[in-house]
Automatic annotation (TrEMBL), chain A:
A GO MF label: metal ion binding
Protein name stated in the entry: Monothiol glutaredoxin-5, mitochondrial
Alphabetically ordered keywords of this record: 2Fe-2S, Iron, Iron-sulfur, Metal-binding, Redox-active center
Lineage: Eukaryota, Fungi, Dikarya, Basidiomycota, Agaricomycotina
SUPFAM superfamilies associated with the record: Thioredoxin-like
Domain Glutaredoxin: 49-116
Automatic annotation (TrEMBL), chain B:
Family: Belongs to the BolA/IbaG family.
Record protein name field: Bola-like protein-domain-containing protein
Superkingdom of origin organism: Eukaryota
GO cellular component: mitochondrial matrix
InterPro entries listed in its UniProt record: BolA, BolA-like_sf
GO biological process: [4Fe-4S] cluster assembly
Record-linked Pfam families: BolA (PF01722)
């Protein structure tokens, strides 16, 4: 019912929707101000790879976050292409990113400004070689075929 | 439809099952309560160990997933459970397949054992 509403930005036509549909489609949009949305939009596009996690790579505060950090560390992503945010240090970010991504959990991985997924998706993509392919495709890491074997 | 809990399913699990069955008409739905594995983690400790229904693993086989990529499938499930997420559900590990994908997975992963 409200699937398309979740995938497309909520246009300023809220007044046209019946109240019940408004309430459902606003589940993820109750608190995010335009200012916060703009800030987060800038954050996810500032670096090719952006990870929102609980804790830091040195001290992850959640098993799922730790998992994604470990997976990404396998690729030796250059630091200038990789930014990590600790949502535990910023309450506004922690709730804002969930609304922005329409995704209720942390960790969250973005590549080239596009939401890739959380811990399940990152792990599955890693196991299937899709994560490596994605990073190569976006020039984050060199293609494996280019290095001498 | 199995449920691997240490006792009978709590209200969150019951609500989850009902909503997912209605939404997805799955041929298979397994909900595993993994909250006990996480009760000592910092975030859970601050909630007094949580209410015992904070972390679940869900496996679903449903053709409602056809034509949807993984992010779309997960969002479908998350949006159905938004109430639970706002009331203490903390994490959901998801494994989503269509019936065709499940059969293919079965075939590929059992071959080596022949």
């Amino acid at each position: 019912m409200f699937q398309s509403a979740l995938r497309t930005p909520l246009r300023s036509t809220g007044a046209l929707f019946p109240l019940s549909r408004c309430l459902k489609s606003q589940t993820f949009r109750r608190f995010l101000s335009q200012e916060s949305r703009t800030k987060i939009q800038a954050a996810v596009t500032e670096y090719p790879v952006v990870l929102f996690m609980k804790g830091s790579p040195e001290q992850p505060m959640c098993g799922f976050s730790r998992g994604v950090v470990k997976i990404l560390s396998a690729f030796d992503i250059p630091p200038e292409k990789f930014k990590i945010y600790n949502v535990l240090e910023d309450v506004e970010l922690r709730t804002g990113i969930k609304e922005f991504s329409e995704w209720p959990t942390i960790p969250q991985l973005y590549v080239n400004g596009e939401f890739v997924g959380g811990s399940d998706i990152a792990l599955s993509m890693f196991q299937l070689g899709e994560l490596e392919a994605l990073l190569e495709q976006h020039g984050v890491i060199p293609k494996a075929s280019e290095s001498p074997s | 439809m199995a449920s691997d809990t240490m006792g009978s399913p709590g209200p969150v699990e019951i609500a989850m099952r009902e909503k997912l069955v209605t939404l997805l008409q799955p041929s298979k739905l397994i909900i595993i309560n993994e909250s006990q594995l996480h009760r000592h983690h910092a975030a859970m400790r601050s909630q007094g160990g949580g209410n015992g229904e904070t972390h679940f693993a869900v496996q679903v086989i449903s053709d409602a997933f056809k034509g949807k990529n993984t992010v779309q499938r997960h969002r479908l499930i998350y949006s159905a459970l938004s109430e639970e997420f706002s009331q203490g559900l903390h994490a959901l590990s998801l494994n989503t397949k269509t019936s065709e994908e499940a059969q293919r997975y079965q075939a590929e992963n059992c071959q080596g054992r022949e």
